[in-house]
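Lab notebook, bench 4. Still working through the backlog of constructs that have no structural model yet. Next entry is a single chain of 477 residues. Request: give me the structure tokens for it.
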Amino acid sequence: MASRLGTHLGEWQATTAVAQSLADRIRMLLLDGRITVGERLPSERALAAELGRSRATIARAYELLESGGYVARAHGSGTRAALPAQRIHRPAAAGDGVIDFTIASVGSAPGMHAATVRALDRLAGLLGTPGYSLDGLPELRERIAARYAARGLPTDPDQIVVTSGAMHALTVVLAAFGERGRGALVEQPSFPHALEALRRAGHRLMPTPVSPEQAAGEGQGGGWDAAHLIETLRAQRPALAYVIADFHNPTGATMPELERARLAAVARTTGTLLVVDETCAELDIDRGWTPRPFAAHGPALLIGSMSKIAWGGMRIGWIRTTSAEQTARLLAVRPSIDLGSPVLEQCIAIELLDDMAPLLERARERLSAGRAAVAAGIAQHLPGVAMPRVPGGLAAWVDLGGPWSTSLSLGARDRGLLLPPGPRFSPSGVLDRFARIPITWEPEVTAAAMERLGAAWRALHAGELPDSTRLAASAVV
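Model written out:
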């Protein structure tokens, strides 16, 4: 039976410096969260048998990890993953020269300051109230509902529960509707923190593939393997399915309306709760068509957010329910998590939603420029790699042509670029031939980042090993 470590090592291969290469790979698995601190690793003998390597090679790899503080070994308790305390830090994108491509965010909107000033007057009228807002300010819920109606999905304000961002929304949904031990259908690749939230809630993840190649038009099949998706639902009958149907993160694919309707219909028959993440739904560059929100085709909980449109620091999100019963259930569990979202930020969100057109146009311009910069960087610095079609969303999901993403990520870190490897977006630790490159940064920052990535690419293909002493943990946004 394959160990968790063996499964996550996936397509790892090395022909020279095998022990060092294996140590670097295990270290990366730890640093990007696929192996957890304190987790017991296989014995030398067991891992040697699983990988088809000598026990001496495994022993040397563990010694290298131990010398760097990345494993702890004790008689009777085996080998456990660890982190050296002095190296646990998050490099910033400014100040120390590090460019952080783990972040895919368009930055603050030009009108953010003015909206904040206007929101202070709105806040003043609320200072005489207790200040708790379990379901959200009525004025904000009205505007979110109106936004859904404008996109083709009539919505009552009572169907909206305001949250402190999209991840908080998913946490509340899982607290209300999660079923520990039951299956959860997820896309592969998908947003890493959502996968972690589902695991933490006790779900068994059931992946279904998504790719960017077919994300070209309304009449096509999107990036989803529709047959696999439907068969998984029918055969496994998962408790819930977490789907990113619009500008899928990270592939950029959009699910066609016909496939949405089919998925909604099958989910009804299998008793599967559809949880649809719409945080990227309005990040359109030049898709050429606009689908209705997923719930227009059948029951689904929708999750939205202001952070990808306005600013990552705007921690306002929401859940759109399909029934009063769902709303009541969410509000019943929420007090065990928090007692409402910040009122000032809700007031700012009201001001921003009253003037959405400039926000969306600014996001389109920023993403278009970022996409062009990534395409130019790939053409200049990654020979043989093709830029995928990116009609919108946050990033390009780039096929590197071989299982090099983790090694490339290690090399990029050595050169001051944080780039999460493809397996970080997989529920099963595969996809090492892909890398997510954000299109959200300013073109000049992207150009510098792609130059660093190119240097790592050349070193990788020249057989150079990354400098493992300068690695740092990071999240993915």
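Notes after review: Residues 114-357 form a domain with the Aspartate Aminotransferase; domain 2 fold (CATH 3.40.640.10). The radius of gyration is 23 Å. Flag for follow-up if needed.
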